[in-house]
Amino acid sequence: AIYGKGGIGKSTTTQNLVAALAEAGHKCMIIGCDPKADSTRLILNRKMQNTVMDMAREKGTVEDLDLAEVLLTGFKNIKCAESDGPEPGVGCAGRGVITAINFLEENGAYGDDTDFVFYDVLGDVVCGGFAMPIREGKAKEIYIVTSGEMMAMYAANN
């Protein structure tokens, strides 16, 4: 999992790292766990993809979703998914992360042939849902993208 304060460059860093691994022949996946839903835009070469929570709102429930609607393939066959969250001011964005990861798991998104799964996670919100990749043991390693600025260090320290 890669964490960092919003705007620090974690999504760009994640996408470049995953692209390099894919270039080296590894099968990779990125799961965007940021309400901005911009964790996969460079890999997909487009501004935004359908997020799990957007599609769930459109269809009625997460159970009504089809994996192909939210799991897209980009550069070098990198699998991409974005979690998103509830409508602003309505609920907890971290809950969207939990819902999305559970949906992807239950529907076989990870697959046995995937070498690396990266979670691009917003790190400056103190919400339990954003800690899911760590807490649930989904991430074997944690990286924090930061700078020397006070707020970036504060977010990294949380």
Topology (SSEs and partners):
Blueprint: E1 2-4, H1 10-23, E2 28-33, H2 41-44, H3 52-59, H4 67-70, E3 72-73, E4 79-82, H5 93-106, E5 116-122, H6 132-135, E6 143-145, H7 150-157
Parallel strand pairs: 1-5, 1-6, 2-4, 2-5
Antiparallel strand pairs: 3-4
Give a structural overview:
- By secondary structure, the protein is an alpha/beta fold.
- The protein has a single domain (2-157), classed as 3-Layer(aba) Sandwich (Rossmann fold).
- The protein has helices at 10-23, 41-44, 52-59, 67-70, 93-106, 132-135, 150-157; strands spanning 2-4, 28-33, 72-73, 79-82, 116-122, 143-145.
- A six-stranded mixed sheet has the order 3-4-2-5-1-6, with helices on both faces.
- It is globular.
- 41% of the residues are buried.
Which keywords apply here?
alpha/beta, six-stranded mixed beta sheet, Rossmann fold, 158 residues, globular
Briefly characterize the structure.
It contains 7 helices and 6 strands, in the order βαβαααββαβαβα.
Strand content: 15-25%
Which structural class matches the secondary elements? alpha/beta
Enter the CATH topology name: Rossmann fold
CATH class: Alpha Beta
Major sheet: arrangement of strands = 3-4-2-5-1-6
How many domain regions? 1
Question: Whole-number radius of gyration?
Answer: 15 Å
**Backbone shape:** globular
